[in-house]
Amino acid sequence: MTQPALLAGLALLPLGWAVSGSGMTGHMAAHMIAVAVAAPLLAIGVRDSRFDPATRWPRLASPLPAALAEAVIVWGWHVPALRRLADHHPLWLVVEQASFLAAGLLLWSAVLAPRHRAAGVAALLVTSMHMTLLGALIGLAPRPLYSHHGVDALTDQQVSGVVMLLVGGVAYLLGGLAMLGRLLQTRSEVPA
Fold it and tell me: Confidence band (pLDDT; 50, 70, 90) for 36?
């Protein structure tokens, strides 16, 4: 296990809970901390250990199915009815945040597995695209989708869309590009 990455990932989880009560923007920051910041650190921290999902469940922890599962979870929890459920019922908020963390950990563990390098690049780049798209849809919506956030609901929603677009889109894009760089470097080192 990589101790510093694991500790950093674990340390970020309470931060996510702390900011989650600050309107839609805080809630989105909590989502992004769980899925795009803490999850990759935790995946690095448990890589090649008995806690690594890619080691424990190799069929489940495959990059493209894990990316699909994460997309369903991320988009699903942003349906207004489910968003409202999580906002008004603490147990559902816990389920929501845990599902974000679990999906993120599964995806990042899958893409970090050496046997999945090329598929890992594709999974991270596709995830970057759908995170960017969802963030743009939330941020550019002409009316509040999540009207239960008060009088400044539209402004709060717009800022939350930008948070998702920047943190989610950029984290997965940078991860995908870093993996692509390693893949190309590995390929160039193979003798002809």
Answer: very high
Tokens of 160: 């939350």
Query: What b/e readout covers 125-142, taking b as 16+ CB neighbours within 10 angstroms?
Result: bbbbebbbebbeebbeee
Mean pLDDT across the chain: 89
Residue 77: phi, psi to the nearest 5? -70, -10
Closest CA to 38 of 66, 10, 78: 10
Q: Which two tokens stand for residue 151?
A: 């009088």
Tens-place pLDDT, residues 46-77:
998 999 999 888 888 899 999 999 999 999 99
CA distance 121 to 32: 20
pLDDT digits (tens, 9 = 90+) for 97-128: 999 999 999 999 999 987 878 899 999 999 99
- Considering only CA atoms, which of 50, 58, 43 is closest in space to residue 103? 43
